[in-house]
Please model this.
Amino acid sequence: MSFQHQEINEFSVNFSNNQENEAFRDNYVEFFGITRVRKGTSINEDIELSESIINDAVAMDAGFDSSDLPDYSLGQKNIFGQVLRPKNSEKYANFHTIDWLKDLLKDKFRHRWLNNQKEKGNWLDKVEAWYDAFSGWFLVLLIGLGSGIVAGIVDIGSGWASNLKLGFCKPRFWLNREQCCWDSVLMTFDKFRNPECEEWVFWSNEFGINDKTQGYFISIIIYIFTSVCFGTIAAAFVKVFAPYASGSGVPEIKTILSGFVIKGYLGKWTLLIKSIGVILSSSAGLALGKEGPFVHVASCCGNIFSWMFPKYGRNEAKKREILSAAASAGVAVAFGAPIGGVLFSLEEVSYYFPLKTLWRSFFCAMVAAFVVRTINPFEKGHDVLFFIEYKPEWSFFELIPFVILGFLGVIIKNTL
Model:
């Protein structure tokens, strides 16, 4: 058995190949990316004191005072004379939970290091610090724009594919029924208030069937055939290209925001196939809606855009702040309600929701709803498909039932 002793500054490190010293390792724990060797520590000599040890494998005596740890923000050096800088990323395995404390402490040290550089560095360091401070707002702006654009495309595509089951616009096939008849001089309306014009051609008329009975059955057959095709194509795309695009996605988003890692669930392929699948499945007449998928689509936008900013893309805890804002944007584009989106993210899906995330979520949802209204996918100046206008004024006696409900709620609460 060999035994060596080495003095490093004020530290005393003992290297030994004695197997009994392996028991000392039980007193070591990993501590947010800092390499620290305490005086009198015994380490087996097969451990290489390399850069990988300095950056990744961290050992600290469990009984050591954490206040004596070197601070990233001060630019201190470790026992090997290397300047400590904030660690950018932490990789987690698939279907594992993140270490909230570890990631938040890393971001805290990174923030303090930037502030120290801003105070003592040159003008480039100051610009970097200001960019880091405003990067969160710029990121939620991109998410709001992306979510609104995708939602507008999905709404327009759903309307066009739904009308395609009945007929098509002969001069311009990419227009839906209402758009096709906008410029028509002889536009009329059927009993369901759907526009009719010469430019819009039904499938029975395209096949030269003038008999109403035969045309009716041909229309039903084409309607059923196109619906089955849309549903089959959507299912095939999900099965082959993106299995994670199935379902609404809201339960999985809640799981991810709680700190669980599901790699690929918020990826680019999931975003693409989810958008196409929503268009096809809703156009097929299936019993589903676009509200839940919009939350998933917006969260995919949040995950993709976050990789443009290492502050969020490489820190899973910080990324979940952005995903909370993205979830609020998904509800905002589905219902045209930015405040409702923020409340949904705050009350339903988020587990970590600091105050700054509240304002960023509202800004993100507001931008997303504004983009949808600007695109105007329903050609009525409304954010949603089913919009109700209450033109008659309400009367005072209508408040009486609501007052009674309020009193009943208080009485029931106090009696139970």
Q: What stands out?
A: Confidence is low (pLDDT under 50) at residues 1-76. The CA atoms of residues 154 and 275 lie 6 Å apart.
